[in-house]
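Tutorial, part two.
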Amino acid sequence: MKKLLTSIITLIIVIILNTNQLFSQEKVNDKRLGTWNTLNIQYSFAPKWGIMAEFQARLNKPFHKIFYYEQKGGVYYNINKNFQALLGIGHYATHDENHFSDGPTIREARLWQQFTINQYLSRLKFEHRFRVEERWQNREFNNRFRYRIQLAIPVNNEKIESNTFFFSLFNEIFATTKMPHFMRNRAYAGIGYQLNEIIGFQTGIIHQYNYNLEKAGAKKFLFLNVNIKLEDKSDFPSQIPMID
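Running the prediction step on this input gives:
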């Protein structure tokens, strides 16, 4: 119960801190529902070591008007069942949706370091993810810091295993070293199905709120995810199927 209360209080504080930002700037909201498509691949090649890759595309309309894509990969180390460290690298590109063929307006290379803490309460699983990013956007360097709390709730089994439906929720805040420091809030609610030991699916809604000194805006996305675990030689329970 103490772990549950700690996680719930943390989530409430995160939401309250971000709510203060919602009424301070010009709003530029995109009311079109976008689509957020991801493919995650994991391979655990040793009891504590593994690698991951992710491919992602975001579209401003349902399956139309692509404006962003990324490819990234990393190596992770399971310290024990509750703690995981990861080092990643990636390439990211943002386009003008109406002039996609002209090439990216923003090109980004990124390194990141990540630390994940798992908490268990009966069949509930909480995941706390801390990430530090070094970003080069059009050759301009900046840092970013992220914290995410995620909850997974298996429906028809005690844990997420083969033939398991589950609910997933998360909230994530983004901060930078530059003013106004708070940069973004991202929230998700959805449902998933773990087909077998290799393949899992998730779908839901992502609400992303972006903020800077001049303006603020929000957009909703239909999230579609396929998670593939090629082989699992790990001695530890599976992580919550990855969302990024």
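The helical segments are 2-19. In part three we will examine how such features are distributed along the chain.
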